[in-house]
Amino acid sequence: MKIHHIGIACSDIEEAIQEFSDYHTIVRKSEIIFDTLQNAKLCLINTDTGLDVEFISGEQVSKLVKKGINYYHICYEVDDLQSTIDNYLAQGAKLISESKEAVLFENRKVAFLYVSYGLIELLEK
Fold first, then answer.
1. What average pLDDT does the segment 27-49 reach?
2. Are the C-beta atoms of 99 and 80 separated by less than 8 Å?
3. What is the DSSP string of 34-90?
4. 113 - beta bridge partners?
5. What distance in Å separates the CA atoms of residue 110 and residue 101, rounded to the nearest whole number?
6. What's the CA gap between 85 and 62, in Å, rounded?
7. Is 2-124 CATH 3.90.226.10?
8. 3-state class of 116 per DSSP?
9. What is the overall mean pLDDT for the chain?
10. Counting beta carbons within 10 angstroms of the beta carbon of residue 91, is it exposed (0 to 12), middle (13 to 18) or buried (19 or more)?
11. Degrees, nearest 5: CA angle 107-111-112
12. Where are the domains of the chain?
């Protein structure tokens, strides 16, 4: 299991990326896509430090953004999605979103869980 990216909630992806680029060098930026299964607009950027950041806008993050909360999740890439979900659940995590394909990640499956330190996304290798 390794960190794949962090998720940032925003109301306007282009504006958020522009502000982010004031502090970080962006080396690659995906297209902004709408994922119907996630019900969100998404964009993944890569920085020169190796940090990947997913920007998320839409109804699912709108309440956070209104409260001024932008940090959304940390994503871990895992070898076996279901067994990792099962392990987290056995430790007391709560499943927020069943596994489903994610357009931004070439239709690899993702699942969201709530753990003691916040929301995590698990991304199948």
1. 96
2. no
3. EETTTTEEEEEEEETTS-EEEEEESHHHHHHHHTT--EEEEEEEES-HHHHHHHHHH
4. 95, 120
5. 6
6. 26
7. no
8. coil
9. 96
10. exposed
11. 135
12. 2-124
Band the pLDDT of 123: cuts 50, 70, 90: very high
Q: How far is residue 98's CA from residue 30's CA, in Å, rounded to a whole number?
A: 25
Cα–Cα distance for residue pair 75/51, rounded to 1 Å:
12
Average pLDDT estimate for 64-72: 96
Rounded CA-CA distance 95/70 in Å is 21
pLDDT digits (tens, 9 = 90+) for 47-60: 999 999 999 999 98
Six token digits for residue 94: 């709560």
Amino acid type, 20: F
The verdict on pTM exceeding 0.70 is yes
